[in-house]
Amino acid sequence: MTALYDVAAIGNAIVDVIAQCDDAFLDAQGLVKGSMALIDTTRAASLYDAMAAGIEASGGSAGNTVAGVASFGGKAAFIGKVADDQLGRVFTHDMRAIGGTFTTPPLAEGPATAQCLINVTPDAQRTMSTYLGACVELTAADVDPAIIEAAQYAYLEGYLFDPLEARRAFAKAAALSHGAGRKIAITLSDSFVVDRHREALLGFVETQCDIVFANASEVCALFQTDDFDAAVKALASRVEIAAVTRSEKGSVVAQGDSVQEISAFPVEKVVDTTGAGDQYAAGFLYGLSQGRSLADCGKLGSLAAAEVIAHYGPRPQVKLRELAAQNGL
């Protein structure tokens, strides 16, 4: 069956609020620099009031990846839960405006659309406080077989591994994807996700996933080692492709015994690292969907990551397809 989508992603539908701050603000608010913490609605309201004026933009890890794939000229779909409220309508509009397919029914009653309050320090580190809201209401019933079976790659966001219902949604997506002869990719998302669910997550990776995206801390946390090379080797022995990012050191792409090092694209000034991993996955998956070599996939990922860290916000501000052409990709 011909694929209608290059990538179909399942993840948290979140609206980001991004503001600049200094280290003193983080200390005053009891925030751990560079971390991601889950907060409730009361804390979300108080932190929002304390933050400097910022920008609001639709985000969420998998949603950002869909935006990146679309910017490369790919066809992408998103599955995630928003509420029938103002932010939910903003997210829906933004997803469709970039050319992404988004048909998940909104939540009529219950928690509000999720928001992520992101404070960015002068060194470009982002500290995230996330109110998940309607995100946790995603169920297996929201996984549309017509979308998953029609996508070359189904991409799963590790942040969504917390709720049991979302795990069932992942299992359903994996069964549908593999049943249609497609591939499943997952991003580990954050080392705290790995620490909380290591055994279950590793089991899911080993039995259901073809491609895994991670950063250095996440892959080391998954195998409880400080040996980066050993962790990459262990991951590569369990999946078809392991793509592991290392910030300014670029990334490592492993398939079987083959390991390729991909250099980071130069950036004049790093402004905000929000969305770097999401855009790396976008470039990599888009490359795979077009039959590109793993080296080219890694380069496309690095290019997309470099674009997004040069400005505030987690989604591309230029057409990545044009940027790739300018760089011979």
In words, what does this structure look like?
The chain has 329 residues and is α/β, with parallel strands linked by helices. It has a single domain, classed as Ribokinase (UDP-N-acetylmuramoyl-L-alanine:D-glutamate ligase), CATH 3.40.1190.20. It has 12 helices and 14 strands. The strands form 2 sheets. It has a 9-stranded mixed beta sheet with strand order 6-5-1-9-10-11-12-13-14, with helices on both faces. A hairpin with a 2-residue loop joins strand 13 and strand 14. Helix 3 crosses helix 10, helix 7 crosses helix 8 and helix 10 packs antiparallel against helix 11.
CATH topology: UDP-N-acetylmuramoyl-L-alanine:D-glutamate ligase
How many domain units? 1
CATH domain class: Alpha Beta
Strand order of the largest sheet: 6-5-1-9-10-11-12-13-14
Structural class: alpha/beta
Organism: Caulobacter hibisci
Family: Belongs to the carbohydrate kinase PfkB family.
GO molecular function: kinase activity
InterPro entries: Carb_kinase_PfkB-like, Carboh/pur_kinase_PfkB_CS, PfkB_dom, Ribokinase-like
Which secondary structure elements does this structure contain, and how are they paired or packed?
Layout: E1 5-10, E2 14-20, H1 23-29, E3 36-38, H2 41-50, E4 55-59, H3 61-71, E5 76-79, H4 86-97, E6 101-102, E7 114-120, E8 126-131, H5 145-148, E9 151-157, H6 164-179, E10 183-187, H7 191-208, E11 211-215, H8 216-222, H9 228-236, E12 241-245, E13 251-255, E14 258-262, H10 276-289, H11 294-308, H12 320-326
Parallel strand pairs: 1-5, 1-9, 2-7, 3-8, 5-6, 9-10, 10-11, 11-12
Antiparallel strand pairs: 2-4, 7-8, 12-13, 13-14
